[in-house]
Amino acid sequence: MTFSPELEAKFDKLMKSYPPGRLRSALVPMLLFGQDELGSITPELIDEIVNRIGVTRLQVQEVLSYYSMLHTKPLGRHHVQVCTNISCLLRGGDKLWDHVCERTGLKNKEVSADGQVSIEEVECIGACSWAPAVQVNYDFHHNVTREELDRLLDGLEKKQ
Amino acid sequence: MSDLVHLTIDGKPIEAPAGTLLIDAVRKYGIEIPAFCYYEGLALQAACRMCLVEVEKMPKLQTACTLPVAEGMVVRTETPVVADARKAMLELVLTNHPLDCPVCDKGGECELQDMTFRYGAGEGRFNETKQHIDEKQWSPVVFFDRPRCILCYRCVRICNEGMGVAALGIANRAVTSEIIPNEADHLNCDECGMCIDVCPVGALTSGPYRYKTRPWEMDHIATICAHCADGCKTTLGVRNNSIIRANNRDHSGLNGDFLCVKGRFAFDYGASQERLQTPLARVDGKLEPISWTRALKTIAAKFGEVRQRGGAFGVIGSNHTTNEENYYLQKFARQGLGTNNIDHHRTGDVITLIDALAGKGGQLATVEDIYNAPAVVVLGCDLSHQHPMLAYQLRANVRHHQAQIYPITPGPVREDNQATRSLRVDKGGEVEALGSLAAELKQAGGVVILYGDPVKGDAVRKLVDFGESLGVPVKYVALVDYSNSRGAIEMGLTPELLPGMTPSNTGGMRIGQMLASTDLDVLWVVGANPLKNRAALAGKPFLVVQDLFRTETAEQADIVLPAGSAYEKNGTVTNVCGQVQMLKKGIGAMGTKTDLDIFALLAKEMKLDLGPATPDALLAEIRTTVKGYDVVLAVLATGGAAMTGVNGPVAIDVPVDAIHSANDTMYTSGSISRYSKALTSLMEYPGELYSGKSK
Fold first, then answer.
1. CB contact set of B454 (below 8 Å; sequence gap of 6+)
2. Residue B355 above 60 pLDDT?
3. In A, which residues are within 8 Å of B181 by CB distance?
C-alpha cells in the first residue's frame, strides 16, 4: 500500500531508530502515524507494518487491543476526548462529559453522521494540574469551563 | 556461574550455584515454593505473586521466581506473613474464577485447587457476580475457557519460546485481558498441546480428553511414544482398557515436559473403527475372517512345506516393532526358515556412521548432548517436523546456552529463526556446504551434527572426516524415521547384518528385490506397508501380513494377522540417538496378538526351537549376546534411557539406494496417521516439509 511522502519519511526514520533486532519497537509509533493519515488502523496498514518490521499479526493485535488510542474504526475528523479521571472529576470533568454528550447527541466513541466529530470519555491524559482537561485530536485544552467547551465545539463546526 | 553461594532457607543452610533463582535452589532441599506463572526454562514473568517469600534485610516480600540466590541470604518460605500474602493473592485470582471444579477437566490435578487447599482461601470478600464468557474451541484439540484463566502467560511463553510457533497472544488489558489465538478465532499451529500441558488451571483443555474422565479414575502408564524416532516418554491415561489421554505427566524421560501432536493426541489410531480384530484369509479372491487357530495352522503348514522343498522366503520387518520382536523375527527367519532374505524400510544411514567412527568411541550424541552442545548442525532434515523433540531441545539449547545453530537444508526450516547462519543447498550437497563453516565450528569448541537421509554412504564418511579435522569434540546423530528404526537395523533386520551390526557375510534379498522377485514362494510382512506407493508384487508368493489395519499390503495378502500396537505390548525400543527405553503395555485390543506372540505361536506350530519368546527373556538374551546392548537393566526398569554402544568396524557395502526417509511431517506417521482421527481432523494435516511455517 502506498502512503504519503510525509508518512513514508516518518516510517523510514523509525526503521532506522532502533538497534538491530529491536525493530518491533517501531510498532506503536507506526500504528499511530498510520492512524493519523488513514483515520483508523486498517487491515492493509497492519499488513504493511507486519511486512516492514517483521512482527506477527498476533503481536499487532496484542498492541492494538491494549492501547485505547489505537482505533480500528474511523474516528471523526475532530476527536473530542474528555477526561473524567480523578483530578478532572473533582473539577467537574464528568459534567463536561455529560454536556458534550448532550450537545452532540453522541454516545461514547460514536461518530457524527457527517463524520466530522467523535467523542470519547478518556482516562487520565496527564493534564491534572490544569483540570478539567479536554483533548481534541492532539491539542490540549486546559481548565475548561462549560462556556469554553461550547466555544470549542462551535469552532469545530465552523472548521467544517 | 559455577561458584557456590551459601544461604539459609527456613533455618536450613543450603548452597546453590551463583545465579540460580531462589525458587529453583530450594527444590533440591525438599522445599516447594508455589508459583503459577513461573515455569522452569521459560522467560520470567513474575505475574502471579504466589512465590512471595520473606528475605531478611529486604523491606518487602520478594518474588522467589526472579530473585537470584546471594551469599548470606536468609529466607523464610512459610511464615504467617507469607501465608497471608499467598492467601490474598488466591482471593484475587479467585475473584472471577468460576469454581466449576466438579466438572472441570483439571479438577484433581489443578495447581489453583492445590494452592487454595494449602492456603485455605476458602472465602472471598468479592461477592460481585462472576462474569461468564463462553468457552471457545480453537482447534479439534485445543479449547479455551476464559473465566478459568488466571493470566499466568505460561501458554504464551511455551508457544513462543519452547515451540517457536508464537500462536498465542494476549488481547486487551486488565480484567478484560484474554489469551487469543493467531487466526482470530482459531489456531494455525503445531497443535502440540503444550499450552494445555503447562496450563496450571483448566483454562486450556484437550479436545479428545475433555469431559471423558476424572484424573484419579485412570491408571497412568508410562511408555514410549509409538511414532517418530525421538523416543519421547508418554504417560497413557487408561480407563476401562482404553487410552483416554497421553501426556508426559511427571516430566520424566528424555523429553522432559515435551510432547508433540503425535505423542499427545495420536494414541487413538489403535481404537480406529478400521482396526483388524480377527485374522483374514483369502477365499475366492476375497479376504474373509477365519480363526486364529486355522490361520496359524495354515501359515505353519505353508512355511513348513516351502522350507521342506528348499523354496524361497522373504521377510520384511518393521520400524515400529520392539527390539525383542525384531531379534526374534530375524532368528525365526535365519534359523527357523533358513533364509537371509530379511529387510526393513531403511530411513537413514546409521551403518556407515558406526563404521566410520570405528575405534573412536563416545561420538554418538544423546538427546542431552543436543541440549548442551555449543554448536549444532542440522543437515538435510526439517527437524521441527521430522524430529519435534530434538528440535525442542535445540531451541532450549539456544535459549539457555546461546548455542550456535546451522541448518543446512534444501528449503526454509523453523531452525532458521534461531540460526547463526542457514545454508540452502540441494539434496546431496549438504556435506560439501558444511566446509564453509569449519572456522566457526572450531571456535565453538564442540559440535553435534544431525544428518537426514540425503547424507548417506560416502557423504557420511566425508562428514566424519570433516568432523575429525575440526579438532574439537564432535558427536553425530544419524536421523531415522520411526520409533524403532534404529532397533530394526541393530537387531539384524537386514540381509547384510546380524544383531549388533555383525556382518552376516551371506547374501540376501533386500525389500526392493523381494517385491520385484518372481521366485519367492513366501513373503512375510510384519508391521510394514511396502506396497503403499507401488503396484502389486511381481511374483505370486504366499503373502502373510501382520498389521493393525488393512493396509495396501494387507489387501494383497493371502493371510492377514491382526497385530498389537506399541501401546499394547511390553518390550524395548531404541531411539534415534541409540538410547534404549522400555515400552509398558497400556491396554489390550480385542482379537489381536502382539507380533512376538504371533512369532512364538508360529514357531510352536512349526515345532521350531528358537528359545523362549517373552519380552523379558529376549531382553536378557539381547543384553548378553548382542554387541552394544549390554545396557543396565535397572536404568530401563526405572523408566530411564540407556545408551547403547554398538561399535564399528562394520565391513559391509551399505546399499545406499535402499535408504530413504518417508519424509513424515509433524502431523503424519507413515501408514498410521490416517487411522488417527486426532491427526486427520486437524486443518494443518498432513503438513509440508521445508515450508518454513513458523513465527
1. B379, B380, B410, B427, B428, B430
2. yes
3. 58
